[in-house]
Amino acid sequence: MASAPLPPHLVTKVELTILCQNLLDKDILSKSDPMCVLYINTSNSHWYEFGRTEMILNCLNPKFAKKFVLDYYFEKVQRLKFSVYDIDSDSYDLDKHDFLGEFECTLGQIVSNKQMTRALLLRDSRPAGRGTITICAEEITDTRVVNLEVSARSLDKKFLWWSDPFLEFYKQTGTGWQLAHRTEVVRNNLNPVWRPFRISLRSVCEGDVEKPIKVDCYDHRENGSHVLIGSFRATLAEMSMQTHTSFAEFECINPKKLDSSNYKNSGVICIRRCQVEKEYSFLDYIMGGCQIHFTIAIDLTASNGDPSSPESLHYINPVGHNEYLQAIWAVGNVIQDYDSTKMFPVFGFGAKVPPSYQVSHEFPINFNPTNPFCSGIEGVAQAYQQCLPQLELWGPTNFAPIINHVACFARQALHQDLASQYFVLLVLTDGIITDMDQTRAAIVEASRLPMSVIIVGVGRADFSAMEFLDSDNKLLLSPAGEAAARDIVQFVPFRQFYGNSLSLAQSVLAELPDQVVSFFNAYKLKPPNASREPEPFQQRRS
Length: 542
Prior knowledge:
Layout: E1 12-21, E2 34-41, E3 47-52, E4 68-72, E5 79-86, E6 98-106, H1 107-113, E7 115-121, E8 127-139, E9 144-153, E10 165-173, E11 176-182, E12 197-200, H2 201-205, E13 213-219, E14 227-234, H3 236-239, E15 248-251, E16 268-278, H4 282-287, E17 291-299, H5 323-335, E18 343-349, E19 351-353, E20 358-360, E21 363-364, E22 373-375, H6 376-387, E23 392-393, H7 400-414, E24 421-429, H8 436-446, E25 451-457, H9 464-469, E26 489-493, H10 501-508, H11 512-522
Parallel strand pairs: 17-18, 17-24, 24-25, 25-26
Antiparallel strand pairs: 1-4, 1-8, 2-3, 2-5, 5-6, 7-8, 9-12, 9-16, 10-11, 10-13, 13-14, 15-16, 18-21, 18-22, 19-20, 19-23
């Protein structure tokens, strides 16, 4: 295989949990809807976005369920910035949302404190009101996860004839209860069934299946003042105590009603499945023999401009690289280490292609349909430059054909018993997608395959459609209303990284390891060279 990441004994993984208090209220008729964004500072002083938490409606004291997992190096100064925004629309562009404050520190400071609370500051260094941020750090040593399926019956009505219930799972720590997971809201239902979810054993009980977990059931309110229906405490071992005829069940108790003589409970929570298993890491898969296959697709539509003009995004500058070439070099130099063949299929779309000069949305840029591969990133760059004079840039900008093309190969790999192959489509584009409905349908279908789609937006067009596809806060829906199985799209606008190829590559590839891991673990696919290990703690009854 090609060169691999650092051996695991040289890297410590750290999980960060975020909560804020007393945030500025930027909304007039309601409270702020906060989201926290984590940035990492590279060696050349450029901040790149690492990830975002979920957005919480109408809340000035949010506890974010989403965690950030970072590689911690004792010998490096790893500068971090946590920025909090009030989310006012569906736009991915943070400049369109209200800024609530930020905090800068190093990962070393967080690790040494384990839990730290600091004031949020505005960009001019003034305090952001009384707003604070608390960051908790925990080293990841236990890779086990628990798969949970939970339902409830006969919950209390909190609004007329119904409730909108959701659950929060809390881990017991030395400083109190820490939020580990929040389910989705099930609307108008006193007998809800929540979507199955998986959570690390470390996050929910610090790896101890006999340690109590607190589960709160709330009735959701749009204004953020959620009403407690009831709660219970149990260990994972107790949640796993099922028989072939019944689930593990726990009474949901509201402490305010305990004084009532005829009070029994506020409903029953049913643990339909509680199964603990080992979860492999990205490093496990890569070092275990999994090959990541990259396909590159280049937008060759007329909106890029005439390649012979210096104003064109495809202009081949004799003294420098255009944005397309910069993106190819920046991302390619990283990804080629994970493909032992270093042979990359490269396609163009949206141009008239010789000899017939019919518009094509899926043609090899080396004009060899039987062998569309380019040797290394140097070969990709060379084929790109050589094809431009032979094309007539046209349109429209259709993504679905090339997504479906890669999906065909990913579908074949799905039928293998081991996690031996994963496919990544890198799309470089300058503008708005023309076949949005077909693209949405293609992405939803691909979300069930060992495949990811990375989109780099070149130029200064309106990329709101691309941001819509990058479903960080909610899963993409097909035109027919079918939800994606997982988030497989990462969108990055090139204009944020002019002259900074390292930061571009880091941002483009930031979500890929989690996407690879989430797919293979969901299908219980082990690395090809995984050693046999004893079965993890298992309490589920058949």
